[in-house]
Model the fold of this input.
Amino acid sequence: MHTLIVGASLGGLRTAQALRGRGWTDKITLLGAEPWPPYDRTPLSKEVLLGKRSPEQLGLVPAPVLKELDLELLLGTSAAGLVPASRSILLRDGRRIGYDALVIATGSVPRSLPGTENLTGLRVLRTMEDALAIKARLVAGTSVAVIGGGFVGAEVAAAARETGAVVTVLSPGPAMMLRVLGPALGEHMTAVHRKHGVRVHTGASVVGVVGKDRVEALTLSDGSRIPADLAVVGIGAVPCTDWLEDSGLRLRDGVVCDERLRAVGAENIYAVGDVARWRNPRYGELVRVEHWTNAGEQARVVAANIAGEPAVHDAVPYVWSDQFGVRLQIAGRVGADDDVHYVLGGPGTEKFVALAGRGGRLNAVVARGEVREFLRYRGLLAGNGAWPADAVQR
Ligand SMILES: Cc1cc2nc3c(=O)[nH]c(=O)nc-3n(C[C@H](O)[C@H](O)[C@H](O)COP(=O)(O)OP(=O)(O)OC[C@H]3O[C@@H](n4cnc5c(N)ncnc54)[C@H](O)[C@@H]3O)c2cc1C
Done:
């Protein structure tokens, strides 16, 4: 039986590893558009920008371990189409590859600002090349504008500040990281950034980029002008499903999958990682998660299903983010109108542990720099999700 995995990064590699870990000896092909062996993206906005890690140190597995997996590795190779009826994919170079089981692990790509593609000094951050190009421009005193206040934007802002740049974050909402943290904790992290000298413009909408060949400044809807030697665009990502447009698969901001991560209405096709929108039984709804841990967990579920041992993916989402040398961790999902209760620290403190929930339900635990308490509440989330009796809900 031939398993073909499209996307040679975290989700794809972990699926291959999980299959081999189960003693699976049949042929596995791992195919990916990037020319590099699978590497970790998470340090790109952290250690790589800070010069603490080089591209050679990003491999997801050491070269000998990759070799031992005994994969057919097709790097620098892009899938251009899928024909489920003939169980085959089309490559951009015109070749066709057949499969018995297909795993879609093509991840997501950052949204960009239309019309700015050829402008020097304006970058998104997803790949090794992006990170190295941004790092090359990060010097003390340079003006950096970060468009968007989500995870990637917040991490770039923190790293740029740590290298001595003058940093402005243009956050469209009323606070940074609003979507994942909700208003109260988003405000908390906005305060942390300000305390470290980041200029945060909330409610900022960028309407123009000044500069002919290279970026010089950004203009905002209120008429103000933000000088920028470097502008980093962090306005979210979209799943890489363009190559699946004519496949007949159900696509809705990702590949729509059932609880077992099987593409809905298709046979022997699975999706893992950023590209998968699956029915998470824990929440009873379709969910897509762009977090590192999720890709690995889903890979194990897909491997079990391919191996004929039915498994569902219902894990509590988990994500971490390093900003100003301190780790922020989030387990669960903070609802927009959740109550927030601090177990340690308080609004604006460098370190804290906060619970978010509503109506006696614990929805999420968010911690910065406090691991033990975080783990305790994360454990509760995986259980029955009741609000802990020792934490008085406001
Ligand atoms: C800068 C940055 C920092 C991050 N930091 C954190 C963090 O601190 N914590 C955390 O939890 N998460 C973090 N993440 C998110 C995490 O890295 C992703 O969730 C993870 O990479 C998803 O893995 P994936 O395999 O699904 O997709 P990806 O890593 O996007 O890999 C998909 C691969 O498929 C390839 N591909 C796409 N289309 C095709 C095609 N048609 N044919 C062949 N190959 C194709 C792509 O080139 C890519 O190599 C970060 C992400 C970024 C970009």
About this structure: The chain has a mean pLDDT of 96.
